[in-house]
Amino acid sequence: MSWWRHADGTVTDLDGTAPIEDDKQDGTTMTMIERDRELLARASLVNQQLGAATVEMLHRQNGGELPANGLRTVGEHLAQLAADLIARAEELDGRTTEPAVVIDQGEQPR
To answer: Given 3-state DSSP classes, what are the helix, strand and coil percentages for the chain, each rounded to the nearest 5?
Structure first.
């Protein structure tokens, strides 16, 4: 079973439905170096889990159709990680940006 760490520190399975206890959050304030390490650790974790999540979705296909929840969960994690990486890069460049907003447009007409 694949699992993902969300930006808020919670951990869920691929469907986003089974919360897993996370004892890493201790409520302390992180330094910039710690934040950067955490960001890179998240990038590494997403990279490690992407292959397993892809294989799991292949096995969960229903008549050849991919599971929407799994795709959505993976997409949300990739989008959040991308937004956080870009925000940090711009912070290092001395710029600030508005947080990225992912708009769910629902099913598109064919």
So the answer is: 50, 10, 45
Amino acid, res. 56: E
Nearest to 73 by CA among 60, 62, 86, 85: 60
Residues 17-63 pLDDT 10s: 554 444 445 655 567 788 888 899 999 988 888 998 999 999 989 88
First and final CA of the chain: distance in angstroms? Answer: 33
Per-residue pLDDT for 5 more than 70?
A: no
Instruction: Collapse the DSSP code of 74 into the 3-class scheme (helix H, G, I; strand E, B; otherwise coil) and give the result.
Output: helix
Q: Which two tokens stand for residue 37?
A: 């390490």
Q: Point out which residues pair with 65 in neighbouring strands.
A: 62
DSSP string, 5-25: E-TTS-EEETTS-S-B-----
